[in-house]
Each structure stands twice: as structure tokens, then as C-alpha cells.
Amino acid sequence: MIMKKEMKRTKRLGRKSIFSPQQEHSKRRNPMFKESLPENIINEISNLSNTSLLFLLEHIYNLIMKSERDIYLNNNDDYANGYEKRGLGTPVGKMNLSVARTRNSIFRPQILPDKYQRDTDEKINLIKSLLTTNYNPNDIAKILKNIGLSYSVNDMKKITSELLDDFKKWNSRPIPQDLIAVYIDGYQAPINYDNNVIKATTFTVIGIDFKGKKDIYGIYTYKGKENKEFWLNVFNDLNNRGLKRFVFIITDDFKGLNEPIEQLFPNSKRQLCIVHLIRNAKRNLSKEHYDLFKKTIDSIKKASNIKEGINMFDKLLDELEPHYKSYINYLRKNTQYYLNFLLFPEELRFIFCTTNIVESFNSILDKIRCQKGGFFQSENILHVNIYIRYLNLYKKWKNGYPKLIPQLYYLRQIFVNIFGELPYEN
């Protein structure tokens, strides 16, 4: 009885094949021609709200329909004919889709249900299986068979490769000319390169524009220790894509970073992350001296101006120097970089003194890494993970940073004081 129901469902959901009649015949005759899926490319979807999942599903459906049309056109005498808008109901809400069309109107994407019907849980589970690690290949093959989709392994590889193409376009898109702040932090993780799992660092560049909105402006994965040449490549890339000026850049003390910033962005203020400062102090100081250090930093955060903060920090270093000469010399050399956030009013300092914005994003990647067995199967897998996660975050970020928006006028005046004119707002 159950088998009959499954057969009826498969027949009802049947679609015009994306293959030619000759290829369909080959598929039936050739037992090696099996439908299957490639490696899954992202997880965490099960933790998303329906709104976030719907946003991702719209993107994936549109990619699949475009790829289906490409496959169809490779095997049929027909031409692409743009897209038509269509709403589609699903168990998680209504999607607004751009359905790929052809000139002769025979082609229809298999991924769509029959006209006037909602999409099913099985179909949604299929798309989620492209994005998650919740399904093994056998589970995915069963879902495909049950809902009557005739994708081959090569077809599915083409569809999923569209995500990587989108990442590359996104990571090279034009970016704003002027920003309030740029944040850079690194995430180190094992990645499989040609069957050798080695550690590489992915640096994420997040910026805040003069509308108070956060966005990711660059992803740079690097094998080995970062150096001046690497950072010159990063900043030249950002510069070539449009970035010219920013008030603040907040980073950790990465090797080789100072000179490229001074060379390409000489008027910008650099801030070293206070959170990293406190973590490093815990490693370098005794418990008693660390407690004193942390308490003093908490007081410095409330200083009336940067001059007062520097005086407080100098007194702390004078007290600690006899015990930790080398470490204190390092701190003296970087005092200004650690305390530049005091140029802002107290209600804004928490935004500009740490790289927490990037670290929050990195923590998401680390959860994905753990669920993938402790490493990323390739650099491409990592980059697609980043891109899909970004699609979800961008929807949350588009309304701006609530605590920053009331201060935008003040921040524009700081920009004017540094650069002599108002920022250009795209």
C-alpha cells in the first residue's frame, strides 16, 4: 500500500525531462547512470528561523532553475528567454521566485510543483540536504526518487558549483568608497588541500558604512604566516574595488599590517583589539597583576578623553615594568593603537575597540567545521559555507546598527575633520 502511494506521488510530480530522448533511453539501459548528490556544502540550516530559511531557499531554487535550463539547452534546440516572477507556497512560507524560461515554452523546471500546488516537505528537505549535513547520500537518493527528480550526479555538481561562482562574484563586487570603520580578524582551521589537511587562516573584512550598516567586504584565505606582501594584496584588492577612505580600522596585531595601512590609508586611525589585549595579558601576567591590569583597562574605557586614558595606562605600565620588561616594552610601543577608541564618546567606544563583529562570524564557521568532522573538505567548501551564511546574516544586517544610527551625524563630522570633506555615500 505504501509502495503504491509512493508510485502515485512520483507519477504526479513527473516533469518534462531536462535530457534528450536518446539520453533518457541511455539512462534506462545503463545501470551505472544513477541519480545521486555531491558532497554537502553547508550546515546550521536547522537552526535558522523560517524567515531566514525562506530567504536561502529562494536563492537556491533560483540557482537550480537556472542550472536546469542550462542543462536543457545543452540537449535541445531551444534558447533562453529571460525569467518570469512566480510565488510558491512552502511549509516555511511563500517564496518569490524568478522562473527560468525558454523561447518555445516547452521547458519547465523539475524543481517546481504542479501549477496551483504548494511545495512539499519532501522537496524542502531535498533543498535543505544540499545545504546541510543532516542527510547521508542514501537518504538523499531516496528523497530524489520519491519526488520524481531525474538529476544525475554531474547535474547536481553543476548546480552546487553555481554557489561557488556566486561567492567569487560576491567577493569581487564593488564596495563603498568611504566607511566609518573596517574590522579584520582571522579564523584558523584545517582545510583539505589535495588530500593533505593543513591549517590555513581565513581573514574576514567587515565594514560599517555611513548609513550604519554592516557588510562583509572581503574573504581572504591564506596558507602560512601573514606578511607585508599578503596585506598589500588585501588592501590593494579592497582599494581596486572602490574603498578609498575610512575613519578607523580595528584589527589584532597581525605581522606586516602596519606598513600597508600607512601606505594606502595614511589618514585612517588604527585600533588594536582590546579583547585580544586582555587575553594576552592573562597569558603574560601573574593572576595578581592580571587582575590589576583588567581593572585598570575597565577604568580607561570610561576616561574623559584619550590623553587621560594614556596617562592611566602609562602609570599601570610603570608599575608592571620591573616584573615584565619585554612585554611592557611591547605595550608602550603600541599604547596609541590600543587607546585610539577613546577618540569616540563613551557610548560608541564598545563598537570601535574590539573585533567582536568578526569573531562572532568566525564562531559560526567553527561550529560548521566541528560538524564536518573537524576540518573543511576543501577551500571551496569553506568559501561556499561563508557565502551561504552571509546570505542569512545580510538580511539581519540590512537595517543598520541600532546604537550607531543616532550618532551618524557626529561620525560624519569626525570624517570631515580628518579628510576635509563629507563622506561619499553610494
What number is the mean pLDDT?
80
Number of strands: 7
Range of helix content: 40-55%
Q: What is the structural class?
A: alpha/beta
Write down the oligomeric state.
Answer: single chain
| Rg | 27 Å
How many alpha or pi helices?
Answer: 17
Read across the widest sheet, the strand sequence of neighbours is 5-4-3-6-7
Uncertain segments? 1-49, 131-139
Shape: elongated
Q: Which range does the strand content fall in? A: 15-25%
CA distance, first residue to last residue: 62 Å
Count of distinct structural domains: 2
Report the major sheet. 5 strands, mixed
From N to C, what is the helix and strand string? HHHEEHHHEEEHEHEHHHHHHHHH
Can you walk me through this structure?
With about 425 residues, this protein is α/β, with parallel strands linked by helices. The strands form 2 sheets. A 5-stranded mixed beta sheet has the order 5-4-3-6-7, with helices on both faces. A two-stranded antiparallel sheet has the order 1-2. About 50% of the residues lie in helices and about 15% in strands. The protein is built from 17 helices and 7 strands. It folds into 2 domains: about 1-170, no CATH class; about 175-420, no CATH class.
